[in-house]
């Protein structure tokens, strides 16, 4: 609400100026019953350079703050889940009683600057993506490729840059926060470590991500459909079929409940998805440091590792 009120004040600070009338645009005014040529050219809002800079700074600052809170929550979740993995399971006394609070304390003490730098980087990258999209719209290449070689080059380059930016935000950004929580490194160093781990374990991570995405999508769909079914059953009762509570059609309320259920399920399953990514990267980091995953529980080793490694760990030294 603070950001919206400040944005409204900034956007309403301009000066309303009438456009120049270079052509005859007179029209007949029905109220005055005469031809009026005074207000037929329209108006525009002109901003001073200081107001324009303030608007850009406000928009970038709002997006930076939003990304900062998202990054902090992701790092806290990753830190609490990583403490479970690196303490060898839930029965270990090394796991803090309040793992989320402990992860938040580590974030505030050691990783706040890295998270702020990462969120600022994402804000600049998203700004570049927005500018590229504006260029695409101005060149009218969103639906077809221009005939000139300049337009084709601009279309291909902007499309390539947008794909790179989208991959950076979706993949490197999330994994970087996970590695910040695990290793305590800076944002760029954590991004490099996460990228190296993903490239070295691309098949293992890809297999888990594909199966996990399908299961998470089915979970979101089940939760949202359950909300819609419960809403329909509630509206189908006698209470909403008579008197002043009567509802003519349950379509709109059921649709709203389905949408809200899907949004809430997406938020909750986002925590599960972040936990899965943290466990996988922790397993890969453990394997890179020790050759074999020494901190992973047996079920995780059986799922992500080869059968030979599982046999060596369960049988022990010969």
From TrEMBL:
Keywords assigned by UniProt, alphabetized: Membrane, Transmembrane, Transmembrane helix
Subcellular location: Cell membrane; Membrane
Superkingdom of this protein's organism: Eukaryota
A GO CC term attached to the entry: plasma membrane
UniProt topology in membrane: Multi-pass membrane protein
GO molecular function: transmembrane transporter activity
Statement: the UniProt record of this protein carries the keyword Transmembrane helix: yes
PANTHER family: CHOLINE TRANSPORTER-LIKE (SLC FAMILY 44), CHOLINE TRANSPORTER-LIKE PROTEIN
UniProt function note: Choline transporter.
Protein's name in the database: Choline transporter-like protein
